[in-house]
Amino acid sequence: MIGEFKNVLLKKEDNIATITLNRPTALNALCNDLNDDMIEAINIIRQDLDIRVLIITGSEKAFAAGADIKEMMDSNLFEAERTSEKAHFINDTLESLPIPVIAAVNGPALGGGCELSLACDFRIAGENAMFGLPEVGIGVIPGAGGTQRLTKMIGAVKAKEMVMSGKMVKGREAYEIGLVTKCVADEEVMEEAVKYAKKLCQKPASALQFAKSAINYAVDNDINTGKRFEKALFSSCFSTEDQKEGMKAFTEKRRPEYSNK
Ligand code: CO8
């Protein structure tokens, strides 16, 4: 364990960090304290250059059942804005981390919990995971990027169905509509996430980082600016030792040994 906070656990094994949401009495509802813990945990990860992949998970029972409704219910406009701002900050930081981030999801990933998973690069879900943005049903809308990320991910038709009608989707359907990367048996979620993370660890870090930036850029920008951005990143690859090693290994018909420089 490299960090133990009130509502979040942070461990590191090999080059893989895992943040476990740990507020079992409220199905990991994202209260203000939990969000503060997340910010601290992410800061530790940002400073540890040995960490190559981050996994975010909850428990076998729940990923996260959303923002803490009981804490939020009496918020005024300014307090609601601060809650939303903090959640956006966490999700934006995860999205722009220079390493891949995997959400390993069992049980409900609702509201803010779903939005947290959408900010990750990969979602590995159990058959009985349940993704949903049910906020409209309690008089609000998603406030941590959900309307934007979900729409870009699965399109406006399906996003409107989930956000406006409150339709929830289980793991298999989430996979079929392009919301999750992989759907596995519930008990295999964490094992699969670690397997996925280990595979990513074998790739050169800078190429992975550039690939993540380029794809994220495509989501938010027009294609011509995106192509210019891609060209700049592609050329930057040629200033890395890993590009030299990757291409040399190919010509020598051997496995590359990356130094991640
Ligand atoms: N907030 C606070 N407490 C919660 C939440 C929540 N979102 N979800 C569950 N809990 C608590 C319950 O109140 C209950 O506590 P207690 O035992 O003290 O009564 C405990 O967790 C267990 O929950 P249930 O008894 O309800 O468990 P069930 O298995 O019957 O139901 C559900 C599980 C379906 C997940 C159900 O709990 C539920 O519907 N929860 C609310 C889901 C929801 O509406 N989420 C959206 C919240 S709004 C939101 O996320 C806005 C995002 C804004 C930006 C992000 C800011 C961080």
Automatic annotation (TrEMBL):
Belongs to the enoyl-CoA hydratase/isomerase family. GO terms for molecular function: hydro-lyase activity. The keyword Nucleotidyltransferase does not apply. One of its GO terms (biological process) is fatty acid beta-oxidation. This is Enoyl-CoA hydratase. It holds the Pfam family ECH_1. Keywords: Lyase. Transmembrane segments: none annotated. PROSITE patterns: ENOYL_COA_HYDRATASE.
